[in-house]
Amino acid sequence: DAGITQSPRYKITETGRQVTLMCHQTWSHSYMFWYRQDLGHGLRLIYYSAAADITDKGEVPDGYVVSRSKTENFPLTLESATRSQTSVYFCASSESGGRYYGYTFGSGTRLTVV
Amino acid sequence: DQQVKQNSPSLSVQEGRISILNCDYTNSMFDYFLWYKKYPAEGPTFLISISSIKDKNEDGRFTVFLNKSAKHLSLHIVPSQPGDSAVYFCAARSGTASKLTFGTGTRLQVTL
Fold first, then answer.
1. What is the pLDDT of residues A58-107, one digit of tens each?
2. A17: how many CB neighbours lie within 10 A of its CB?
3. Minimal CA separation from A61 to chain B, in Å
């Protein structure tokens, strides 16, 4: 199916565990992004990527690692999960340039760290 | 430092009336502004946008107004419908990067 998909939709993990959230898009968009949504903070950028093998930090990158070996995939890894990383995570993609600069978001992954 | 602010966490409006959602920003380098709508358990979806060279953009029931001197934008929904009940995020982009900065969101409830 065309679009942007995130997996898993829900995840419960223990403090200290490593967990990877997956994001896959079928449009060959250059840009991909990871945001987290928290009450009172809105959507905050964790990491983004302008192309394969190019990644950069966003507003809240600590505790997260990303990679982008292929244009269509942008996994987000929590190397050692903490309770403060309990959140809803959204992946998004966009064309480079274009008539407007909106993103298309995935449906999100709700992560609970216990 | 919150560069994009939505000071009203929630808003309740009667069906058929106008909904006005507000957003303030501090970064004068922002050149493009967008509104996203988010339903529970779904990702945000693009609603409407405006370039900094304009002061108004209209799309059906939705109109966005931009006041650059006040660094303020607003989203007007007329008439409001129950299906408009959602969280609305304001977002802004600066010309040198493709990343968007989002506000904290306003939860709109349209009542019957």
1. 999 999 999 999 999 999 999 999 999 999 999 999 886 444 657 899 99
2. 12
3. 14
Instruction: Quote the DSSP letter at residue A52.
Output: T
Q: Is B82 helix (H, G, I), strand (E, B) or coil?
A: helix
Going by C-beta distance under 8 Å and a sequence separation of 6 or more, which residues neighbour residue A94? A29, A30, A31, A33, A101, A102, A103, A104, B98
Of B94 and B42, more confident: B42
Q: Which residues of A touch B95 (CB under 8 A)?
A: none
CA distance A61 to A46: 5
Supply the pLDDT for residue A39.
87
Q: Report H helices in chain B.
A: none
CA atoms within 13 A on the CB side of B54: 12
Please tell me the distance in Å from A89's CA to the nearest CA on chain B: 9
> Residue A15, Cβ neighbours under 10 Å: how many?
11
